[in-house]
Amino acid sequence: MSDGRDSRGLNLPFGTTLNLKGYPLVPGQIDCSFYMKSKECKFGSNCKFNHPENVPRDRYRDLSHYEAFRQHNKDRMDVSFFLCHFTKSTNPVVSQTNNIHRIQGFAHERLEAILTKKKVYDCVLPHLDAPVQAVCFTEMMLPSLSMHAEKYSPWGVAFHKSFLFNETKANQVLYCRDELFQSMKEKAQGDHDLLRYMTPFAPKYSEQLHQGTNPIDYSHEREWRTPGPVSFELKNLAYVFVPDIRVFKELMPDLHTQLCEEGVEIRVIEKVAKENSCNNSYRCQRANCWYAHTPDENDVFHWRTGQERRGEERRGEERRGEERRGEERRGEEMRRGEERRGEERRGEERRGTPGTDPRYGSPITLLSGGSSSRA
Ligand SMILES: [Zn+2]
Ligand SMILES: [Zn+2]
User: Which terminus of the chain has a lower count of CB atoms within 10 Å, N or C?
Assistant: First the structure.
């Protein structure tokens, strides 16, 4: 780790991760043509191209409009073919009222909910002073997504642009100068379908901007929004973004299987390297780590601790249940023994002729026999 080489000792660029078959995942690099054809690559872990976790099956892709669009724009380097949505552990907007987020929890749990429910919920937008709701996407290119994920999390989904445009009325957002935004906002008062696509533009080169330690810069956003939640099928997904394939499999084993079976491509979002940050990232044994971790990594560590605790509790519950059932079984056996002995006693009583000789019958038999004979 300290000599700047990958901890596995391979001759890979620093921080390169491998897919579960052992081939490199290289964000931003084109896909390896050998691997995409045969699911194998003779260059193995030394290949410089990208090897997605699973090779998508064409028949599952949302190809209806996508392929024509792709062909038309294949030589335009800045045209993205999909729109990405990343989750966040905190609520996206804090200052707004009526802001009920229907998916709570850590960023990875929200992604899990999105993939399980097959629905991305909308939330209230900032800046508009009204409860206008939308789902937000970015059309950033793959190499820029690591920086984007710093603001959100590395957990996310991407849809084909054609699907969101045609099926969910997605539209680009107009980022405009503050004075323009204010006047447009006043004119569109009450019209959520107009307000939804407006946002004040704050580039870093603005003279009016207060340059704090972490200045706002919207110049890279390239945002799209949809009115209302986005319901989808897995075939509409272009990618599922995760920080680490193994961690994804650890947290959501069933979804990993399902995505692989349905041919949805899983892409790794690389962590932006920072001074002092932990290279073991999500796989770190946290207790003895001196390096810095991202909030999302800490969330996963919390989740793991919670899982261990829940496992303990479940095992304790099972143990107590076992004990309880044991006691019930013993009680049942005792009751049956009691009954059997009573049965035997009554059998003996029946065989001895009750009522004729008081010395052989029980007092009760004698009494009831006596009373019935009197009646
Ligand atoms: Zn290759
Ligand atoms: Zn660490």
Answer: C
